[in-house]
Amino acid sequence: MKVLYNGDLIEKKDARVDIEDRGYQFGDGVYEVIRVYNGTLFTLKEHTERLFNSAKEIGIYLKGTVSDMEEKLKQLVAANQLTDGGVYIQVTRGVAPRKHQYNDSLIPQITAYTFQVKKPVQEQTAGAKALLSEDLRWLRCDIKSLNLLYNVMEKQKASKAGAFEAILVRDGFVTEGTSSNVYAVIDGVIRTHPANNLILNGITRRKLLEVCAEQGCSVEETRISKEELLCAQEIFISSTTAEVVPITELEGKPVGKGVPGDITKRIQEGFQQKIKHESEASISS
Ligand code: PDD
User: What is the largest CA-CA distance in the chain?
Assistant: First the structure.
């Protein structure tokens, strides 16, 4: 099994993280998770650009171009002969004796590896449970930061309670899930939080908005209040690894009829078509 280690493909067993890496000590870095379908990195450019952008937002300037990085990630996938799975890539600020302030000359540490993905097929077809949690995260959720402490805490609570996701609510409005974006169908319109500093603008989210436009579904990027969510006709979440999952039970109560709704199913289907088309287009190019 090969991993990407600062530009080189090396054996996983030879990869070592320095104990003074700021990612390890401060969570000082950013990351991406990219899905591989049929040997192809899905929405590779979008993920790589977001990684560069997250890095820039925290003052990490990566050498090399987005295309260089894309090339390396393709080589990693090929080296591990991965057909279906994912790639995790992380950039940390660098290695230095532990001190909050840092020297601008630090060398960013870039690592990536491939992994298997278990599609949440059961949840995708039958629907999943979700809980509500207060959104107590910082105010730069648009940066895909390694600091996931609050996300981890709330996901763990949800998981212990038998739920698939915790949906976060800030000041009475739904932001996103601990590791997903959230959508609700209200009066026949699909609504999701606007892409601002309070959410991560998911790559899956962007693709779903395209699917909606193509299918002529009405969509609004407007805030959903907690009360609106609790009586939504349909709810679904999206992420790279979960794809599109209907939420059929919220806080112990059925959402709509308690089964995946028609609009959600259409979006799921449209997204699968997109994966198929884009993977085929990328293989033939
Ligand atoms: N998480 N919001 C948050 C807080 C997330 O962590 C994620 C993804 C998303 C969806 O983004 P995308 O569609 O680009 O995956 C939204 C990844 C999958 C993770 O941390 O594993």
Answer: 57
Confidence (pLDDT) at 138: 98
Q: Whose CA is nearest to atom 18 of ligand 1?
A: 240
| Same-domain check for residues 156 and 53 | no
CATH value at residue 125 = 3.20.10.10
Query: Dihedral (C-alpha) 149, 155, 157, 163: value to the nearest 10 degrees?
Result: 180
Cβ 240 under 6 angstroms from ligand 1: yes
Q: What rounded mean pLDDT belongs to the chain?
A: 97
The range of the structural domain enclosing residue 20 comes to 2-115
* pLDDT tens-digit series, residues 67-77: 999 999 999 99
Q: Which residue among 140, 151, 240 has the greatest number of ligand 1 atoms within 8 angstroms of its CB, and so is best to mutate? A: 240
Same-domain check for residues 175 and 39? no
